[in-house]
Amino acid sequence: MTANATSDVHRDRAAASGAALDAVTKRWGAVRVLDGVTFEFEAGVTYVVSGRSGAGKTTLLNLLAGYVRPDGGTIRVPEQVGYLFQDDILFSGLTARENVLLRAGLHAPGGEVRSTVDHCLEAVGMTRRGDERVAVLSGGERQRVQLATVLAGTPDLVLLDEPTASLDPHTRRHVATLLAEVFAHVTCVVVSHDERLADEIGDVERLVLEDGELTHA
Ligand SMILES: Nc1ncnc2c1ncn2[C@@H]1O[C@H](COP(=O)(O)OP(=O)(O)OP(=O)(O)O)[C@@H](O)[C@H]1O
Ligand SMILES: [Mg+2]
């Protein structure tokens, strides 16, 4: 892929914390998703982004992840970015532990892979069911395993796309509590339609993506 002359994505080793958009523009055909957006995501803060379906919330996360290039402007993100996708991307034939191991193996130093996996499963309360195949886990349990895989990447910035969309209220509260605890000191950008999720996470900045603009709610 060649870089557009007027845009770039900077992976910043030194500023392993916050993230920033500077005059970022992104269109899909006639749809203008971001219209010259400048925004600073401060280190350690959790942002909850709402907006109607099709407003461009997933595109915003894909821009921050570097999967999509902006048409114009610059994006600064830390080097390690974790992404919990809108769709479940676990390997259902592998166990919870094996799914986390795949991610930890890419990031943790050799001798620490096993303890990293144990730590991540424990952090999401899945130690006891770690050796079950993902195929037999409930939706809420799968979502917890997904959070463990994100955690295993030791991210400085975490992107979560509708993390509670298919969960019942009880499980949603559990996942919200986990988000608040597990990623307490990490910059998080959470996309959610669900007003209650922001309340349940607690200390968050609410944003709205609408008509190409990202503003405080
Ligand atoms: N890779 C792509 N190619 C072409 N158009 C795209 C692409 N990705 C997204 N779009 C379009 O951009 C618009 C925003 O899509 P996006 O998935 O970012 O919205 P969203 O806010 O996440 O919606 P939802 O709440 O339904 O998940 C939509 O009109 C979509 O069709
Ligand atoms: Mg989306």
UniProtKB/TrEMBL annotation:
GO molecular function terms noted in the UniProt entry: ATP binding; ATP hydrolysis activity; transmembrane transporter activity
GO cellular component, one term: plasma membrane
Gene3D superfamilies reported in the protein's UniProt record: P-loop containing nucleotide triphosphate hydrolases
Domain ABC transporter, chain residue ranges per copy: 19-217
Keyword Cell inner membrane in annotation: no
InterPro entries, per database record: AAA+_ATPase, ABC_transporter-like_ATP-bd, ABC_transporter-like_CS, ABC_transpr_LolD-like, P-loop_NTPase
SMART domains with a match to the protein in the record: AAA (SM00382)
Keyword ATP-binding: yes
Keywords: ATP-binding, Nucleotide-binding
PANTHER family associated with the record: IMPORT ATP-BINDING PROTEIN
Protein name: Nitrate/sulfonate/bicarbonate ABC transporter ATP-binding protein
Organism: Cellulomonas persica
